[in-house]
Specification:
The complex is a heterodimer of chains A (177) and B (562).
Chain A (H helix, E strand, L loop, with lengths): L1 H39 L3 E2 L2 E2 L34 H16 L6 H4 L9 E2 L1 H5 L2 H8 L3 H11 E2 L10 E3 H10 L2
Antiparallel strand pairs in A: 1-2, 3-5, 4-5
Helix pairs in contact in A: 5-6, 6-7
Chain B lengths: L1 H28 L7 H11 L9 H25 L15 H12 L9 H4 L2 H31 L9 H27 L9 E5 L4 E5 L5 H9 L20 H25 L3 H27 L3 H6 L17 H13 L15 H12 L10 H21 L4 E2 L2 E2 L2 H27 L1 H4 L7 H15 L14 H30 L16 H32 L5
Antiparallel strand pairs in B: 1-2, 3-4
Helix pairs in contact in B: 1-9, 2-7, 3-4, 3-6, 3-18, 4-18, 6-7, 6-8, 6-14, 6-18, 7-8, 9-10, 9-12, 10-12, 10-13, 10-19, 12-13, 13-17, 13-19, 14-15, 14-19, 15-17, 15-18, 17-18, 17-19
Classes of the chains: A mainly alpha (177), B mainly alpha (562).
Protein name (chain B): Potassium-transporting ATPase potassium-binding subunit
Subcellular location (chain B): Cell membrane
Subunit structure (chain B): The system is composed of three essential subunits: KdpA, KdpB and KdpC.
């Protein structure tokens, strides 16, 4: 009886390896690449993927979440809510933001879960308007209008939270003259 | 307000799943659904199994164990040999032996505990051919065992409880594969990656940043990881990674995929024991516990983070954002993580380790209740039915009468088997946690110090023994000590429950039903629902309170930093 079960286990494993381990993912890959090639390949644009956050250097750019932004090492800080190390990290980030003339909003201080969060909250974008406008010698009103145009509400009106894609916002900012 | 709509949509969709997916699953397991016969028949022929043949509980259990043993060795072989096998565009070497062993056990037991990081460890073949295949098959094994137990209640004086190979093949190709196939297309349309093209290098000329973007066949794996309540992410960040879970819609769909089969199983149960009301009573217990825990976690995370307050920024408007994604926000993140920890799934869309103490408590205790609210695919149903047997036993003790459940007399053997199935998990968790906290190799694991560090250890063994797979990610679990002790939890948590459940199924199937009398405790009434909820909570609290007091509870009531 033992051998019967092991033999059956082996045969069914081989069949399902071919069906579920090869045919299924390869068929999905074919469908995905044919119908949504851009998205199924990682939503890549000229300056990166709009799904993957980057560290923006300098006050002339809108800053994203304070992540490592390495897509080959994803994950959060994993520090607990009463961690001394986390408090020290927060204090450093807050000081750096204040130095740039930005009033810290919580999502500019707290790191994300993925470590590559591409978005910030609308509040975090608006709080950077003055400093970005000053660094680029643009009227604050123009930059504020640009942010307003990039706020995406919850999907379908109720799913998730309002957010601003930092890469898209900065690309539009680079196009402002 | 938006979150209210999320809940409304969720309740409506799950209501439809309960009724229609439930009745479809009854047809599948009774062999009345035949539209995939062309795929099913050749498999039976090559296995030399007749779809009409039946097995005793011992033969059924031997088939479960035999299949799992083979699946375990094959997965282990693929991880160890991936360097020389095809579909390895990033040229990853062999997975380390202890990691490969822990991962194989973890995936064949429907746990998906991951001590490795997917982006730097697993080839596409390991992901598709080992991890994703076991996501389907371990789920289907759990579903088969649940069906066998339901047959035990439904049958009268029968020596057999069905045929494992038939239940297993049907669950895989009629239930899991079609739903996963369609759902993966929706995920890809939303932006989940699905390509064989390997990593992409990108250069941002605006900012001077270079990034390497790991990619792979993610959508096909993402959907079955949720649907099969497995939970293992393609990459380390799991459902938080925007390449896996890009939008609010995919986030809600993930929650629905996780819950649809466990919820539908209560209809299957009711229908197969000829009283849908019995299934409704079980669903009511699951829903009450689930709603309580979602509320607890959402409220806790809205309170904000003590670290943020100490650093001098107010997050009272947003809640605790450490480890959470902007596009989901706090309530949707809490909903996802609670769903996943109450279903033995273990996927996360936000870092569990960075939740507030009470939010982390909600995830930890969701597992400690035994994964029954609503629990994993199949495993949730058989888990709660063990508690139901104990509940009617306690009810019987109160009035001094031999208890019955669904017309079957519950006697010494049944109560012993149910108690064994319920107690294996807490005993294993507590012993392993005590060992890890006592010796150096265990204490080297936690990232955080103080009570949060203890919570990381307790969470790791709770998660593995409950076959959940989520983690307080700060624990450095990819060490020989954690990989090997974790395996003990994984195997005892899985088979320490499956074997008593199948023995119970055999014992019940053989019994002749007794007519319900005036003194029979009605198990389709609110009184039973309330008592069953109380039994689940009391068993969990009695076993785990001291351990919880050392971890999240002391962290919640303290004021200092660690």
């Amino acid at each position: 009886m033992l051998w019967v079960n092991l033999r059956r286990g082996l045969i069914v494993s081989v069949i399902f390896f071919v069906l579920l381990g090869l045919a299924y993912p390869l068929a999905e890959t074919g469908i995905g690449q044919a119908l949504f090639g851009h998205r199924a390949s990682g939503s890549l644009g000229t300056n990166g993927s709009k799904l993957v956050g980057q560290q923006w250097k300098g006050p002339q750019w809108f800053q994203g979440r304070p992540d490592g932004d390495d897509p080959t090492a994803t994950g959060g800080s994993n520090l607990g809510p009463r961690s001394k190390e986390l408090v020290d990290t927060y204090k450093k980030r807050i000081a750096a933001l204040k130095k740039q003339g930005i009033t810290p909003s919580p999502d500019l201080v707290a790191a994300s879960g993925s470590g590559i969060d591409p978005d910030i909250s609308p509040a975090a974008a608006y709080t950077q308007v003055a400093s970005v406008a000053a660094a680029r010698h643009l009227p604050a009103g123009t930059v504020r209008t640009l942010v307003a145009a990039h706020v995406q509400g919850p999907q379908l009106g109720f799913l998730g939270a309002s957010h601003v894609n930092v890469l898209e916002l900065n690309e539009a900012l680079a196009g402002l003259r | 307000m938006a979150f209210t709509w999320t809940i409304v949509v969720m309740v409506v969709v799950l209501g439809l799943c309960w009724r229609y997916l439930g009745s479809y699953m009854v047809a599948v397991y009774e062999g009345r659904s035949r539209w995939l016969r062309w795929m099913e028949r050749p498999i039976y022929r090559s296995l030399r199994v007749s779809p009409e043949s039946e097995q005793t509980w011992q033969r059924y259990a031997a088939s479960v164990v035999g299949f799992t043993a083979v699946a375990l060795l094959l997965s282990y072989g693929i991880f160890r040999l991936q360097k020389s096998l095809p579909f390895n565009p990033q040229h990853f070497g062999a997975v380390r032996p202890d990691t490969a062993w822990n991962t194989s056990v973890s995936f064949v037991t429907n746990t998906n505990w991951q001590s490795y990081s997917g982006e730097t460890t697993m080839s596409y073949l390991s992901q598709m051919g080992a991890l994703a295949v076991q996501n389907f098959l371990s789920a289907s094994v759990g579903m088969a065992v649940a069906i066998a137990l339901v047959r035990g209640f439904a049958r009268k004086g029968s020596p057999t409880i069905g045929n494992f190979w038939v239940d297993f093949v049907r669950g895989t190709i009629y239930v899991l594969l079609p739903i996963a196939f369609v759902a993966a297309i929706v995920f890809m349309a939303q932006g989940t990656v699905q390509t064989m093209a390997g990593a992409a290098s990108i250069h941002d000329s605006l900012n001077g940043v270079d990034q390497v973007l790991g990619r792979g066949p993610m959508a096909s794996q993402e959907v079955i990881k949720q649907l099969g309540t497995n939970g293992g992410g393609f990459f380390n960040a799991n459902g938080a990674n925007p390449l896996e879970n890009p939008t609010g819609l995919t986030n809600l769909l993930s929650v629905l995929l996780i819950l649809c089969i466990p919820v539908a199983f209560t209809y299957v149960f009711g229908k197969m024991v000829f009283s849908v009301r019995q299934g409704v009573a079980i669903l009511a217990v699951m829903t009450a516990l689930f709603a309580g825990w979602v509320t607890m976690a959402t409220v806790a995370e809205h309170q904000g983070s003590p670290a943020m307050a100490t650093a001098g920024v107010s997050d009272s408007g947003t809640g605790n954002l450490e480890g959470k994604e902007t596009r989901f926000g706090v309530p949707s993140s809490a909903l996802y993580n609670v769903t996943s920890t109450q279903t033995s799934t273990g996927s996360v869309d936000s870092a569990a380790d960075s939740y507030t103490p009470l939010g982390g408590f909600a995830m930890l205790t969701g597992m400690m209740l035994g994964e029954v609210s609503p629990g994993g695919v199949g495993t949730g149903l058989y888990g709660i039915l063990l508690f139901a047997v104990i509940t009617v036993f306690i009810g019987g003790l109160m009035v001094g009468r031999t208890p019955e459940y669904l017309g079957k007399k519950i006697q010494g053997r049944e109560v012993k088997l149910a108690a064994l199935g319920v107690l294996v998990m807490p005993v294993t968790v507590l012993v392993l946690t005590a060992v890890a906290a006592a010796i150096g190799a265990g204490r080297a694991g936690p990232l955080n110090s103080g009570p949060h560090g203890f919570s990381e250890i307790l969470y790791a063994y709770t998660s593995q023994t409950n076959n959940n797979g989520s983690g307080f990610g700060g624990l450095s679990a990819n060490t020989p000590f954690y990989n090997i002790t974790g395996t003990i939890g994984l195997l005892l948590g899985r088979f320490g429950m499956i074997i008593p459940v199948l023995a119970l199924a055999g014992s019940l199937a053989a019994k002749k039903p007794v007519a319900a009398g005036l003194g029979t405790f009605r198990t389709d009434k609110p009184m039973f629902v309330g008592l069953l909820i109380a039994v689940v909570l009391i068993v969990g609290a009695l076993t785990f309170f001291p351990a919880l007091a050392l971890g999240p509870l002391v962290e919640q009531v303290s004021h200092g930093l660690f």
